[in-house]
Design brief:
Blueprint (H helix, E strand, L loop, with lengths): L4 H4 L3 H18 L5 H26 L4
């Protein structure tokens, strides 16, 4: 399974919802963070989180 395969299993609205929630959390934790920076950081975090989750699942199943 390629690294980007997980993206195909989620629709746009699910990913947008995740990024929006992360953006809100980032801005709540640091009110000085600009909306643009929070959104960029959230998109990066969303990609990293799903990729790491996919790796964790693969490792727990012994699927390197």
């Amino acid at each position: 399974m390629a690294n980007s395969d997980w993206r195909m299993s989620l629709d746009f609205s699910a990913r947008l919802s995740a990024v929006t929630k992360i953006t809100c959390a980032l801005q709540t934790s640091d009110p000085t963070l600009s909306p643009e920076d929070a959104r960029r950081d959230a998109a990066i975090a969303e990609t990293r989180l799903y990729h790491e989750a996919q790796s964790i699942v693969k490792n727990s199943r012994g699927l390197s």
